[in-house]
Amino acid sequence: MYYVIDAFTETKFGGNPAGVVIHEHLNDEFMQKFAAEVRFSETAFVRKVDHRTFEIKYFTPKSQVELCGHATIAAFKALLDQQTIEGNNTYFIKTLAGTLSVEVRPPLFMMEQAEPKLGKIVNNYDDLSKIFNIEKCQIGDTQFHLAPQAASTSLWDIMLPVKTKKDLYDLNPDFIALAEFSKANNVCGVHAFTLDAKEGIAETRNFCPLYGIDEEAATGTSNGALTYYLYKNGVIHTFNQEYTFLQGYSMDRPSEIITKLIDEDHPKVMVGGNAVILSKGEIC
């Protein structure tokens, strides 16, 4: 069974579209070719293990990745549509990032992220300034002394703070140079954000040309990493509270990503949102 689902939105043609394939025995070669054919930023291939557990593999048009937030939300929307799962339950997914929990609380689906980590701080702004065609003085924020830094809740991105919403919208990356920069720094891409947002904690843009995704309308894992980065930098403090991140507005695909910090002793991040089915059918 094949679905096209818009994730992190309540409206068709909003959010981030993902392909979802529910199968019993497809091989990785088919999955990669299928993902390249349909050309969504990620396609999730879901196989039932038992009544509470599912294996999910994620493929971009170019390669397999460990985890994908919006494709997971889409996958559970499809499973709920098929009545394979029920609302108000917790399920588990086996991924390359480990076994993670997913809470199904319609209309929201909330997924556990892998262990959050922070990496190196980028102190030299020359490369980022040149790649994104911005002045170095536009990088940072006006209150918390934030700096670009690698962060991960399964996939590494560089969190790039910019001071204003205009600065965020004016970003015009050189995608070839950004792919080379990402490869050199062992990250998937750059997750740019500003705290200059009237709604939500931050507004974001995500760039991942190294994996064939110039810009993505909603990125669950990256906003999960951003949540942890903001927690470690003193911007947010409260556990078990929902935080909203906006993304995709610069692409006319408005998305709302919900995150939550859990377990104060060993902090982790939950990421989720709503989803809308656009189409479904059989694979011939």
TrEMBL record:
SUPFAM superfamilies: Diaminopimelate epimerase-like. Pfam families: PhzC-PhzF. Keywords: Isomerase. The keyword Isomerase applies. NCBIfam families: PhzF_family. Belongs to the PhzF family. This is PhzF family phenazine biosynthesis protein. It comes from Fictibacillus fluitans.
